[in-house]
Amino acid sequence: MARILAVTWDGGGNVPPLLGITTRLSERGHEVRALGHATQRDAVEATGVAFVPYRHARPWSATGRTSNLRRSRDFLAMFTEAGPARDVADELEGPRAPDLLLVDGMRLSALRAAVRSGLPSVALLHTFRRYVTHDWARGPVGLLATLRGLRPGPLWAAADRVLVATDRGLDPAGRDPSGNTRYTGPIQADPIPADPIHADLRPSAPGAPPTVLVSMSTIFYPRQVTVLQNVLDALAPLDVRVIAATGPEVDPAELRVGPNTELHRHLSHDEVMPTASLLIGHGGHATAMRALAHALPIVTIPLDPHLDHQMIGTAVQESGAGLVLTTGASPVAIRDAARSLIGGGPHRFAAAAVGARIRATDGASAAAEEIEALLRPGRAVTGAAAEPNLDRT
User: What confidence score (pLDDT) does residue 217 get?
Assistant: First the structure.
């Protein structure tokens, strides 16, 4: 069995896919360690995987209230910093040196260190490949990374594998994978059985109204409170049961609610989604894929124009499984969208079709098999060997 080093960062939706893979690799007998921010220790160790905190990376937290300017500045610094490469270099020494490195594809200096190590290297993309390779890599992060010698495209091309943990049918880039790219399907902590989920209204007690789940991320966004309030105002007059998760940074006391609404700071989606009729969310990849796996239609209200929220919402809408609104959508617009998706209709069959596709794929096992293939003697190298001049990035 192999020793594997997984490199991550504390960003919310990027963490479950990596932990899903490391857990599966550990179950298969591999010795796995995860290198990440100190705030990730509990989440990593809860899966049984050993944790190593960064020693040279800058402090980072994805939570906490901050301005758009400060948030953008912190993201730029975190994605392009050199410290993680030093931490990877440290882990390459000694008797527990890894045989393979699995690196979050946005942790650029760590990925470069992995590629330069000469060991098999795998980059993990936790959302749509189209977003990462176009919007993210060609935006401010990509420009600054290029100035710092961390041009994203050549780094991904130099890895032996790029694993994309999403539904290929929804990803706008899914029809055009590069030679070292493999789609695993969404990687979820507890895969839902592949049994069919009916596209009609969800079961409820006789005479009980349908349930609407509202979830606007565990990470704080500057417009989060305003959007949440607009959603709650929109749903208050409807004959529905509203279950809303505010996240750790929004105090439920800040929000006014109707008599049909339950507010929670923390909420297990799997306790609600099996009997819900609709999700209203921000377009976070992990939540959207989980909702679709449960065959739930989605109203998406993006919270950050620079992240993948808009692309995910648009992809869900184009599949027929939901609607995407603007961040400033009024309560009336949100109410109209919710009404149109709560009842039966083609959107339910579209959500059921996408959900069946997601449930049919065990993303963690597919990723583990790709990684194990790189550990076999005589493995085919499609990345690093094809990019010998990485120093030119």
Answer: 77
CATH pick for 211-359 out of 3.40.50.2000, 3.40.47.10, 1.10.275.10, 3.40.50.1260: 3.40.50.2000
Does 389 score more than 50 pLDDT? no
Instruction: Tell me the domain boundaries of the chain.
Output: 3-188+362-392, 211-359
Which of 195-199, 349-353, 388-392 bottoms out in mean pLDDT, i.e. has the lowest? 388-392
Express each pLDDT in 245-273 by its tens digit. Answer: 988 778 888 899 999 999 998 888 889 99
Given a cut of 70, is residue 54 above it in pLDDT?
yes
3-188+362-392 and 211-359 share one fold: yes
Q: What is the 3-state secondary structure (H, E, C) of the chain?
A: CCEEEEECCCCCCCHHHHHHHHHHHHHCCCEEEEEECHHHHHHHHCCCCEEEECCCCCCCCCCCCCCHHHHHHHHHHHHHCCHHHHHHHHHCCCCCCCCEEEEECCCHHHHHHHHHCCCCEEEEECCCHHHHHHHHCCCHHHHHHHHCCCCHHHHHHHCCEEEECCCCCCCCCCCCCCCCEEECCCCCCCCCCCCCCCCCCCCCCCCCCCEEEEECCCCCCCCHHHHHHHHHHHHCCCCCEEEEECCCCCCHHHCCCCCCEEEECCCCHHHHHHHCCEEEECCCHHHHHHHHHCCCCEEECCCCCCCCHHHHHHHHHHCCCEEECCCCCCHHHHHHHHHHHHCCCHHHHHHHHHHHHHHCCCHHHHHHHHHHHHHCCCCCCCCHHHCCCHHHC
Confidence of residue 385 (pLDDT cuts 50, 70, 90): very low
- Architecture field, domain 3-188+362-392: 3-Layer(aba) Sandwich (3.40)
